[in-house]
Amino acid sequence: MKKTFLSAMLLMALSIGFVSCSGDDDDSIGGGSASATTGVLDGLNKRVKSVGDYTFYYKDNGLLDYIRGKNSVYEFTYNPNKIVYTENRYGDYGLDDIVVTYNGSGYISRVDMTHFEEIGGKTTKKWQETSFYAYDNSGYLISVEGLYKKGTYEGTYSLWLTWENNLLLSVKSEDTLPQDSYDPCHHHIYTYSYENAYHNKYHQYVPSVLRFLDIHIRGVVELLACVGLLGKGPLYLPANCITTGLDETGEEYYSDKRNFSYGLNSDGSIYYSSLDYFLGYHFEYEYLNNVDRAAVATW
Questions:
Q1: Residue 286 CA to chain centroid, in angstroms?
Q2: Backbone phi, then psi, for 247, in 5-degree steps?
Q3: Between these two residues, 248 and 30, which has the higher pLDDT value?
Q4: Secondary structure in 3-state letters for the chain
Q5: Which of 48, 122, 173, 262 is the most buried if burial means most Cβ atoms within 10 Å?
Q6: Residue pLDDT, tens place only, 153-197
Q7: Contact predicate 96/84, CB 8 Å
Q8: 116 pLDDT exceeds 50?
Q9: Are 206 and 262 in contact (CB under 8 A)?
Q10: Residue 209 near residue 224, CB atoms below 8 Å
């Protein structure tokens, strides 16, 4: 699906390292400075333990060691800063090598990713991708630019996010990626509404808000966004999102509305988030109460 391709590109684009380039160190950004390598969000005296079916494991020094799901593992190494993502699908293995650069506030500024597949004992490089991320002075993500390469084919994609009063109002996307029969559109608009919205005390990102990253490997992006890697989430949690696909003339090709639901803990942290009518889009959150003591990784 075309939207799946676009999102996939983004998701790939969102993995984590630990240092920043010297040029990015000068990029001072206000707002939170949470680092996904620790699992601790600004103002929240808790460490993220799990999101949905994914569990976060930490080293003795408090840095992320790996994130484990039902059929996948994200392994973190430092110096060099890299994540190795391994996924087992139908007996075959996919492997991603991901190198991430941070800006001075600890947010992703660049991701370089190479995807390999192992079938029958043979490992083959399938595609590469580079993505760049920009934030405003308050720490909100405002754009993503990416380049995707597979063999002799090259495609690009762009996202532009509009914020007002600390709320994400809309996202516009444009790409030159392959079309498919499910969604042939190269332009999309995601519009968020906030009727009777929950206060998002710690500016947490949740999968429903990241609907514009709808991709087949979105898991890594959603997980790392949930621990602060994509900057600050909106001040309130949106009630719904309308996705509009535009044809080549800019006319509406389709429109799809999805409602969201949430639960909050007594301290204001998120307990669960759901995308209505999608069975696989219900995520419950667990936290470790003492952020000074890491959950040591054990297999």
A1: 18
A2: -85, -175
A3: 248
A4: CHHHHHHHHHHHCCCCCCCECHHHHCCCCCCCCCECCCCECCCCCCEEEEECCEEEEECCCCCEEEEECCCEEEEEECCCCEEEEEEEECCEEEEEEEEEEECCCCCEEEEEEEEEEEECCEEEEEEEEEEEEEECCCCCEEEEEEEEEECCEEEEEEEEEEEECCEEEEEEEEECCCCCCCCCCCEEEEEEECCCCEECCCCCCCCCHHHHHCCCCHHHHHHHHCCCCCCCCCCEECCEEEEEEECCCCCEEEEEEEEEEEEECCCCCEEEEEECCCHHHEEEEEEECCCCCCCECCC
A5: 48
A6: 888 889 999 999 999 999 999 888 766 555 667 889 999 999 988
A7: yes
A8: yes
A9: yes
A10: no
239-291 tens-digit pLDDT: 999 999 998 888 898 999 989 999 999 999 999 998 876 555 788 999 987 55
**Residue with tokens 């800006």, as numbered in its chain:** 103
